[in-house]
Amino acid sequence: MPETIVEVSQYKGQKSLVINCTQLGDSFTPQYKTAKQKRAVLDEWCDFLRSEQEAFDELNFCTKMPQELFDAVCYQRNLKSLHIKWGSYECLDALANLSSLKSLFVGPGASVKSIAPIATLTGLESLAVENFQKISDYSALSNLQNLKSLEISGDGLSPKFIHIESLEFLRQIPGLSSLVILVARLKSKDYSPILSLKSLTHLSLPPQHALFGLFDELSALPNLKTGLLKERAEIYKKR
Asked: In DSSP terms, which residues pair with 9 in a beta bridge?
């Protein structure tokens, strides 16, 4: 894991970092006592990310990400990996700037209004999105022809289920080797598009009744080795 820092002043030229510059003043960062101090740290990072546009290859954010920080991060044109644990972002439009991105994790984004910007990142090889409560149509992801790993899930802690209209778009991503769909309800109730993914080595799906009739075919996919279908087969049996 890359080094974790809070302030721009701690940056020493690393290409990979964990930046935790929000939610300050807790037991780990008690020195930040006032709203003004906390705001200054965030503003300094936003300014730095916008001005030093070739600073980073990999960034991880493990504290809450506001929209302004999200937009600033997307000035980092050399980014190959971006991991956002969670945040209050609604608009992902700035992602379209990250044409070098290979790996993207966008944690609980209940306010996200559109995934169209993600679909422009045609170089993506790994994508995970969590708890996109306002999204049910994921067909735009069919544009991501280089994807090897895809995870679409709700919030497993609450739990809060997401809804997915259809999995037909998966037929357009035949190179997938890992697929995870959890804490989700499939409106079409048709899991058969997954059968076209002959390269899958890892597969985890929600144990829903609509899936039970396909279990044998899915678990027999030629390269499947890991995931809930292999490791927890009992949860897919008719009760």
From this structure: none
Is position 199 within any domain? no
CATH code for the domain in which residue 154 is found: 3.80.10
Global pTM value: 0.94
pLDDT tens figures, 20-67 = 999 998 888 888 888 999 999 999 999 999 999 999 999 999 999 999
The answer to the question of residue 220 being in a domain is no
Nearest of 127, 152, 146 to residue 199 by alpha carbon: 146
How far apart are the C-alpha atoms of 218 and 179, rounded to whole Å? 12
Given a contact cutoff of 8 angstroms between Cβ atoms, the answer to whether 94 and 116 are in contact is: no
Q: Which domain covers residue 109, as residue numbers?
A: 4-169
Count of domains forming the chain: 1
- Token digits of residue 33: 């006592």
**Residue 67 neighbours by CB distance under 10 Å:** 15
> What's the CA dihedral at 86, 119, 145, 204 to 10 degrees?
40
